[in-house]
Amino acid sequence: MARHIRRLLIVGLVLLIAVPVLAILAYRVVAPPVTPLMLVRDAKIDYRWAAFSDIAGDAARAVIVSEDQTFCDHNGIDWRQMTLVLEEFRETGRPSRGASTITMQLARNLFLPPSRSILRKMVEIPLALGIDLLLPKRRIVELYLNVVEWGDGIYGIEAAAQRHFGKSARALSRTEAARLAAVLPNPLERDPARPSASVSQRSRRIAQDVRRLPQLFFCIGS
Question: Which of 167, 201, 163 is nearest to 182 (CA)?
């Protein structure tokens, strides 16, 4: 009996590692058909895939500026920010900032249900490391732009561009790309087409940094 249980545990562990690895490798060439978040939302799904070459370059640059300025330098985890957040959590019991990279956010979108828990973060970290190891940085950004939520039922930058601005993702201006990036912390409450004063201010900062910080984008060839 003990040997049988041990064998089952080993098989379970192998599957636990192998299934995400195989899925990540598949996503090198295959568009994700659906994400866990899409399945739990009540709204009708508007999900349209766009290849990296069919997305305005400023859109990729804007999300890097907004969400993860060390994206080209880290291995999926910004360990410096993670350490600062953990230290703050130990001192105060509640961190004032997040430490999620684009890669960690992609791991959540592709594999994990929407929730906030230590357990999910523990799973998210090895998934992000695996994604960074197995996928090129440009592909990571391409996947992220295509699966991130940009409004109720709106997934991916092509659907967001069409719904919010009436144009393709390729035709987005720098200002429009910056507005889309500016609403990402809370896309259900913020509207890039009719931005609040705070979103407008944030998007102007993002657009300025896209011009000012070209060194942030070397890994995506854009």
Answer: 201
